[in-house]
User: What shape does this take?
Amino acid sequence: MDRSPYPTITKLKAFAWSETFLILILIGVSLFLFFSSKKQASDAGIEIQNLKDRIVVLEKDLARSQDENYNLANTLYAEQERNTNFENQINEIAGTVGVLEKLSKTDPELLQKYSKVFFLNEHYTPPRTEQIDPEYTRNGVRDLYLHADVIPHLENLLEKAKGDGMSLKIASAFRSFDTQEVLKTGYTITYGAGTANQFSADQGYSEHQLGTTVDFTTPALGNGLVGFHNTPEFKWLKENAYRYGFILSYPENNTYYQYEPWHWRFVGRDLARYLNREEINFYDLDQRTIDEYLVNIFD
Assistant: This one.
């Protein structure tokens, strides 16, 4: 047995081959890992590029979808606009029909200018009249009547005046053609035609025949009307009557009759407020302008 402390040549060669083989294995493994990682990197690059291409395609699809949605939205808006316009037209037509129907049921005479202008024939009477509650009439008279649709407005006015401490009463209301004729004849006999014409209308020209006009008074005046313009009741009417649709037909310096502070005509709240706001007289307005307020006279 060789017990030499030094390896033999054969052993040295074997060892050298072992190291060489190990180095070759390491080199091979390193090369494998290198080329594997490079391939993976290449594959990753391809995948990234594919994703980028896909994103581009998706962005184009999204843009196209947005354009389509925008066009659909515009189409929908246009259709809604057409429907709205159509609905408005239908409502306008329905409203016009409603107004015409309402107007057809409203007496066209109610806002005519009668005092020496238009004429009411002997057969005209309001379509419906109601007795004025004797509580509101002078001396509790029971035979005073007024257009039925004016009664609520008159009562509202009188109740408000009462609440404000006023003592307003009704001295005269609806008068028929024949009643006016008798009245005017009596005035003419008593005062003469010239004087009577200054304060009394001929039959057919009196606002009282419409059933929308009243003569106010106050118990302080007894059975007369003279001096009514000096009463607090008249001052209250000037400040408040328009709120209830009543206007003073013959103010001072009118061209029809003498000043009649007691004579008030119902023309509807809208027209009365307009006249008050503009500080103009009913008879100063063009009839066509006045007629625009007819449809809502009792509202």
Q: What stands out?
A: Confidence is low (pLDDT under 50) at residues 93-97. The two ends are 141 Å apart (CA to CA). The chain has seven helices and six strands.
